[in-house]
Write a structure and sequence with these properties.
With 402 residues, the chain is of the alpha+beta class. The protein has a domain at 283-396: 3-Layer(aba) Sandwich (Peroxisomal Thiolase, Chain A, domain 1). The chain is built from 14 helices and 14 strands. It has helices at residues 29-43, 70-77, 95-108, 139-143, 145-148, 159-162, 176-186, 191-211, 233-237, 269-275, 299-310, 329-338, 351-354, 361-375, and strands at residues 8-14, 18-19, 56-59, 86-89, 114-122, 128-130, 156-158, 166-167, 174-175, 258-267, 281-290, 320-323, 380-387, 391-399. The strands form three sheets. Strands 1, 2, 3, 4, 5, 10, 11, 12, 13 and 14 form a ten-stranded mixed beta sheet that branches. Strands 6-7 form a two-stranded antiparallel ribbon. It has a two-stranded antiparallel sheet with strand order 8-9. β3 (56-59), α2 (70-77) and β4 form a beta-alpha-beta unit. The chain is globular, with a radius of gyration of 21 Å. It starts with 7 loop residues before the first strand and ends with a strand.
């Protein structure tokens, strides 16, 4: 069997992350992804019609109402060739991490020299859904559905909750927030600890934005991440529990609903040399970890532990960790269980302070690690995201300048 090719990050770009019903409330997800691809191409001085891309793989959670083949939509809106292979991936909050793994495999086995991968999401446009009560199909029946039901009210679903933020694997459906409350209770993570973590996340994201680090990620240099704000420390103390009557998780210690896209250009070393692009980092290894869906909050521990063990590394060997802030309890628990110093975790803030467009967040985590290793310095970083269904994905990233 031939040796697998190394996979390298050659470039990356993302849109600003818009707040719920904010900047991007009327912009379909494929348009956001197209903007990120165009920004990436511009940063690398590639022509829009550059035809050497082997494929485009994007994570996305909310497909309802987006239209057929959303990734192909994004490809064509970005000016890519009509022949480009376009694939959607849904692994909930780890969707874009899995998209990066899928694209990497194409390069590793020699099927492609270059791949685009990342994720897109517009949570503001996630529609409400009605149960189908009739065999008739077609747009005219959709418009007339209420009249056809003749007063028999159908069950209506909020697709944003039902398709992305609700555990339906057991008879007792629970939101991701309720399960985060359970994690906090069982593992004795106090509300005060969660709020302290959230304050630090907001402080870090503000200082990072002021330092200009995000300007080197975002495709629109005039736009800013919309969820970033100053957190009122006194106000958050008075917030009611967001999910459970006696819970400790609040809106301030939860990730923010957001819209956005992030895309990376991956390639092998031979193609990078041919294009005269210096690889920024190597995607060394990927791990998926799965357990009981109700414990998705603790799954990053298993994923990171397996990734370190498989690569004969220890926590002390890793310079930066990006652990997605689905809720504050997730990184708090991971730091405690793995003995990771807070100074190494989410040093530029995270989804609590920046926003969490589900299908795109994992790619942002990887972008952060690549940039941190290059600009701050270091040899290894790990990007990790838990996801609904009880799992987590982790990626080991190596700085090519170290």
């Amino acid at each position: 069997m031939s040796r697998k090719r190394g996979v390298y990050v050659l470039g990356a770009c993302r849109t600003p992350f818009g707040k719920f019903f904010g900047l991007f409330k009327d912009v379909p997800a494929p348009c956001l992804a197209a903007a990120a691809i165009k920004g990436l191409y511009k940063s690398l001085n590639l022509p829009p019609a550059f035809s050497s891309i082997g494929g485009l793989v994007l994570g996305q959670v909310y497909f309802a109402g987006v239209g057929q083949a959303p990734v192909k939509q994004a490809a064509l809106l970005a000016g890519l060739s009509k022949t480009v292979n376009s694939v959607s991936v849904n692994k909930v909050c780890a969707s874009s991490l899995y998209a990066l793994q899928a694209a990497s495999r194409e390069i590793q086995i020699g099927e492609a020299g270059l791949m685009l991968a990342g994720g897109m999401e517009n949570m503001s446009r996630a529609p409400y859904l009605l149960e189908r009560r009739d065999k008739k199909v077609g747009p005219e029946w959709s418009v007339m559905s209420r009249q056809l039901l003749k007063g028999d009210e159908p069950l209506m679903y909020d697709s944003m909750i039902f398709d992305g933020l609700l555990d339906t694997t057991t008879s007792k459906w629970r939101t991701m927030g309720e399960l985060a409350d359970m994690c906090a209770e069982v593992h004795a993570i106090s509300r005060e600890a969660q709020e302290a973590y959230a304050r630090a996340s907001f402080e870090r994201v503000l200082s990072t934005r002021e330092a200009g680090a995000f300007d080197r990620q975002i495709c629109d240099k005039e736009a800013k991440d919309e969820c970033v704000r100053h957190l009122d420390s006194e106000k958050i103390k008075g917030l009611k529990p967001a999910f459970s009557q006696n819970g400790t998780v609040t809106a301030a210690t939860s990730s923010q609903i957001a819209d956005g896209a992030a895309v990376l250009l991956l390639g092998d070393s031979r193609t990078a040399r041919k294009m005269r692009i210096s690889p920024q980092a190597r995607l060394v290894d990927f791990v998926s970890f799965n357990q009981d869906p109700i414990w998705y909050t603790t799954s990053p521990v298993g994923a990171i532990r397996d990734l370190l063990g498989r690569n004969r590394l220890a926590v002390k060997d890793i310079d930066f960790f990006e652990i997605n802030e689905a809720f504050a309890v997730v990184p708090i628990y991971a730091m405690r269980e793995l003995g990771i110093p807070f100074e190494k975790v989410n040093v530029w803030g995270g989804a609590i302070s920046l926003g969490h467009p589900l299908g795109a967040s994992g790619a942002r985590l990887v972008m952060n690690i690549v940039q941190q290793l290059r600009e701050i310095g270091g040899r290894y970083g790990i990007a990790c995201a838990c996801h609904g269904g009880g799992g987590a994905m982790a990626i080991l990233i190596k700085n090519m300048q170290s």
